[in-house]
Each structure stands twice: as structure tokens, then as C-alpha cells.
Design a protein that fits this description.
Keywords: Cell inner membrane, Cell membrane, Hydrolase, Manganese, Membrane, Metal-binding. By secondary structure, the protein is α/β, with parallel strands linked by helices. It has eight helices and twelve strands. 38% of the residues are buried.
């Protein structure tokens, strides 16, 4: 499928929770005039603790660079987990532009502010230590979710996110998400835009908030989603919870670092 624009975020390459095989399959079957990487593409936080980089993660990077070389305009907006890339605002690497934020104009004339969103997260701004603690617990749940879904695939079932299920059962988490969404819509209005596209909270959504369009492209560790714009300007959330091409077999060599990482997390 060829779209006018595609947005993805929160891929978290460098973690065992990253669903790189699903993302590779999505990239194989979908093209766009513009491709936005809306933060947390590489997880620098986790890589500082332990190095985990299977071939599939390298393949994702190479696939994105190949798209840029072949004429797709690839724009990278770093997030909090890949915040080290923020020192390169205004530069390009392998035809990939690194920017702080950007305005995208849809085919039907809507101006959308594109940003990761962590700058407007109170926890990230005023209690970053708490974000690090939460990240460790979250990573452990993703480890469990990874092996749980391996069993589901063997049983012929679709991908299902344990972490998303738990998140939506907790009232405080639901309240936090709602507050974040309203803050992002307000900030888009202050910038004179018709809406916002962001990531950060791992919850794909398209809805109107106080007359503004709020779009979140989701993630590739829980929901396996991307935001797309059709050639006529329609915005859609794409759920890629099944491999569409040839089945991808995870090798024992790929699993070994993930198992070791799971043991380390459990002993913290």
C-alpha cells in the first residue's frame, strides 16, 4: 500500500520487547511519500544497562535507511528514550532528517503538529527518576508478554498485549492518558495547528478534543500500530498484529540475550 504519510513511534529497538519482526513486515508491505519516526525508535535507556541488538533490529534500521535512499522523505523526531539524538537537530544522516518538531499538512489542508510528547509529560519533567523505575517494571512485563505471544503464535492465535490490558485496568493510568491527550491538544492549538500527532504513551488513538484533532500512532512493543494518511487526506490507525508475508522464525541465538535479560530484571 502506498500512503501520503506514515507515522510510527516507540519502536524501542535494543530491547527484547520490541516487535521488530512485525515492524519489518509492515515496512515491507507499505510505502509513503513521507515517513515520520516520532521518537523512541532506539531505546538508549535500556542499551546503557545491557546490550541487546539482534539481527532483526539491525534490519529495521537498514530498511528505513533504504526507504530514504529510494526517495521517501524520512523525518526523525527523537523522544525521551533516544534523547541523545536531540543534539543533532537540523542535521541529516543517511538522508534522514533529525528535527525537534515539524508541521505536516495533509492533502485536505489540515496542519498537524508532530512531536514525540515527552516534553509535556509531568513525570518526565518533574520526576524523571520515577520514569526510570517505571521503565524497569514495564520492561519486565514486556519480557513476559514476549514469551506469552510466542505460545499464542504457535497456537495459531493473533498477537495480544498483556501490558496494554493491565494498563487499561488501572484507573490512574487511564486518568494519566486522558490528561496527556488534552495537554497535547491544547499545545497544538497554541501553535495554530488543527491537530497533533504524537507517541510516548503507547496508546494508538484518533479523536477530536475540544475541536482539535488528536492522533497517537501507538507503538511497536504493545499495540503494533502506525498512523497513516491516504492520498485523499484521510487518517487511519493500522494494526499490524499478524505477519502478512513469510513466517519469521526466531532463532535460539536471538532468544538467548532476551532470556538473560529477563533473569537480570527478575533479580534487581
Amino acid at each position: 500500500m502506498h500512503y501520503k504519510a506514515i507515522w510510527i513511534s516507540d519502536v524501542h529497538l535494543g530491547t527484547s520487547g520490541c516487535q521488530a519482526n512485525y515492524l519489518l513486515d509492515f515496512l515491507k508491505h507499505n510505502e509513503a511519500d513521507k515517513f515520520y519516526l516520532v521518537g523512541d525508535i532506539i531505546d538508549g535507556w535500556r542499551l546503557k544497562k545491557s546490550f541487546y541488538w539482534p539481527q532483526s533490529h539491525n534490519d529495521v534500521v537498514q530498511k528505513l535507511l533504504r526507504k530514504a535512499r529510494k526517495g521517501t522523505e524520512v523525518i526523525y523526531v527523537p523522544g525521551n528514550h533516544d534523547e541523545s539524538a536531540r543534539q543533532f537537530f537540523g542535521l541529516s544522516f543517511g538522508d534522514v532528517k533529525v528535527v525537534e518538531e515539524v508541521i505536516h499538512t495533509t492533502a485536505n489542508g489540515k496542519r498537524l503538529w508532530v512531536t514525540h510528547g515527552d516534553q509535556f509529560d509531568g513525570v518526565m519533567q518533574y520526576a524523571k527518576w520515577l520514569a526510570y523505575v517505571g521503565d524497569t517494571l514495564y520492561s519486565f512485563i514486556l519480557h513476559v508478554n514476549r514469551y506469552f505471544n510466542m505460545l499464542r503464535v504457535k497456537m495459531g492465535l493473533q498477537y495480544w498485549s498483556l501490558s496494554q490490558y493491565l494498563k487499561h485496568q488501572v484507573k490512574n493510568a487511564v486518568s494519566y492518558i486522558a490528561d496527556f491527550e488534552h495537554i497535547m491538544a491544547r499545545e497544538a492549538r497554541l501553535r495554530g495547528c488543527d491537530g497533533v500527532v504524537c507517541g510516548h504513551i503507547h496508546k494508538a488513538e484518533i479523536r477530536e478534543i475540544d475541536g482539535l484533532l488528536y492522533c497517537n500512532d501507538g507503538d511497536w512493543v504493545e499495540s503494533l500500530t502506525a498512523l497513516v494518511e491516504t492520498q485523499t487526506g484521510e487518517l487511519k490507525i493500522i494494526h499490524w498484529t499478524q505477519i502478512k508475508g513469510e513466517p519469521i522464525v526466531t532463532s535460539a541465538a536471538d532468544l538467548e540475550p532476551a532470556i538473560q535479560s529477563l533473569i537480570e530484571e527478575a533479580t534487581l
